[in-house]
Amino acid sequence: MTDAFTPSARTPKIRIRGLHKSFGGKHVLNGIDLDVEEGTSFVVIGGSGSGKSVLLRCILGLIAPDAGTIEIDGVNLLTASRGKREELIGEIGMLFQNAALFDSLPVWENVAFGLLAPETKKHNDKHPRLTRAQARERAGEVLTQVGLDPSVGALYPSELSGGMQKRVGLARAIADRPDILFFDEPTTGLDPIMGAVIDGLIVDCVKKLGSTAIAITHDMASAQRIGDQAAMLYQGRLVWRGAASCLMNSGNAMVDQFTHGRREGPITMELRR
Amino acid sequence: MNALLDLIAVIGRHVLEAARGAGALAMFAVEGLLHAVRPPFYWRVFGGALMDTGYLSLPVVAMTALFAGGVIALQSYTGFAQYHVQSAIAGIVVLSVTRELGPVLAGLMVAGRVGAAMAAQIGTMRVTDQIDALTTLRTSPMKYLVTPRLLAGLISLPLLVVVADILGVAGGFTVSVVKLGFAPAAYISATINAVKPIDITVGLVKAAVFGFIIALMGCYYGYSSRGGAEGVGSATTSAVVSASILVLAFDYLLTDLFFAQ
């Protein structure tokens, strides 16, 4: 298995160096260095408020970092031209924590939204220009891929259960066959069985598309199911990196405390009594 | 001395905060308008916004204008009868409605109905990550959410005011003829003689400005909302209150600009 943190001859799909982000006086990201090789499924674990979501949002360009570089395919997003940046970020599909479906649109339009977006990058064989009818057909195919009946496409997000919303969110993320997939807490709020179903779908989709994936989670079972490699974020720094299969016996005191949910250990929670 | 310095510091902070807010609002408005001249344009979203802002506001604006026209006729009669100048009522009604009441009342009604809805809708999208999701789907949130609504406000309010003008005059006519005993033909003739194209035009210009302001406030406060349901609630309140105040302030400024001489 490739170690995602060992410098390799190949340009990593995603390379982050010295990433810093503060909100007011709070340092959320404190010098993140990270390489994610192409085709790897990478999991970032960490407690609530440890900066996991901020890391993803910085890569997506939703939050501007204070310092550092973020490269996709060797191109620094922070200094690239607007067109190049949009092109690279356009290759990222994202499953949000609460699915973030557009509640004013039916499910099929949610799934096909990126396919129909008129601002879409230049159309080519991978991203052909679709009519609404073709996009609806493609939405039906993707819904089937995530285990939903195409007839669900006619419903509105408010008519779906939490698990179905997550699956629709996943369908929307993969509909345009992105090179990179991000998953923000994919199993949060789901029962263990539905969580396992979503994880299975994520693994299937990532393998089928051959995409590079980054998932952030504090669900250990999910992290081991989804990830090839993992890292732990604590106080804005990556404090451990290794194979996801080693998460439960990493030999790192912080990771062990976190993965086993122990109160005692090097990680301290600030509680007011 | 220290107390004075503290007071100056507090005032200074508020002034800077207000200037920052005004600057951010101005940039938001400019960016929203610039997207209108840069393709692509979201016609479906624009059509939906036009429907929400214009067509669905029609009943409330129509009822308001109808009753407002009737009330002006009644109130004017009460006052003018003392000086035996009741014949001026038709002119008073038509000028009040076309110059002021049509645009202002329609503006205030639409601010309450549409401004609040825009702020709540966009604010909810903000706090549930839907706006971030738009960005990840290669769609500019400003272009998709804000520009169509700004244009819908700009276009639909003048159309609503045309209806409000007609119904306001009809309200005054009905009260004057049915309740106050005016001759219908004489009332209509006096109305036509009193009103000039400039009165209607200025009313429609005001309506376009008010429509833009209402949509801008709804979109701006919704777009900048933070912090869940409470944030969306405050955004909605701020949108309606600020839009209502700005409608009245711009009404004064435009009246001064067009009619002061």
From TrEMBL, chain A:
Database matches in PROSITE patterns: ABC_TRANSPORTER_1, ABC_TRANSPORTER_2
The protein's GO terms of the molecular function aspect are: ATP binding; ATP hydrolysis activity
Q: Which SUPFAM superfamilies match?
A: P-loop containing nucleoside triphosphate hydrolases (SSF52540)
Keyword check for Electron transport, yes or no. no
Location of the ABC transporter domain? 14-260
Q: Which domain of life is it from?
A: Bacteria
**Keyword terms of this UniProt record:** ATP-binding, Nucleotide-binding, Transport
PANTHER family recorded: PROTEIN TRIGALACTOSYLDIACYLGLYCEROL 3, CHLOROPLASTIC
Official protein name in the record: ABC transporter ATP-binding protein
Which organism is this protein's natural source?
Acetobacter nitrogenifigens DSM 23921 = NBRC 105050
TrEMBL record, chain B:
The entry's localization annotation reads:
Cell inner membrane; Membrane
Q: Provide the transmembrane region boundaries.
A: 54-74, 144-163, 200-223, 235-254
Lineage: superkingdom: Bacteria
* Keywords assigned: Cell inner membrane, Cell membrane, Membrane, Transmembrane, Transmembrane helix, Transport
Q: Please give, as recorded in its UniProt entry, the membrane topology of this protein.
A: Multi-pass membrane protein
Annotated Gene Ontology cellular components are: ATP-binding cassette (ABC) transporter complex
Molecular function as annotated in GO: phospholipid transporter activity
Chief localisation class: membrane
Which InterPro entries does the UniProt entry name for this protein?
ABC_MlaE_roteobac, Permease_MalE
Give the signal peptide as a residue range, or say none if absent: none
The record's section on PANTHER family has:
ABC TRANSPORTER PERMEASE PROTEIN-RELATED, PROTEIN TRIGALACTOSYLDIACYLGLYCEROL 1, CHLOROPLASTIC
Q: Which family does it belong to?
A: Belongs to the MlaE permease family.
Q: Relate the protein's function as given in its record.
A: Could be part of an ABC transporter complex.
Kindly provide the name given to this protein in its UniProt entry: ABC transporter permease
Which organism does this record belong to? Acetobacter nitrogenifigens DSM 23921 = NBRC 105050
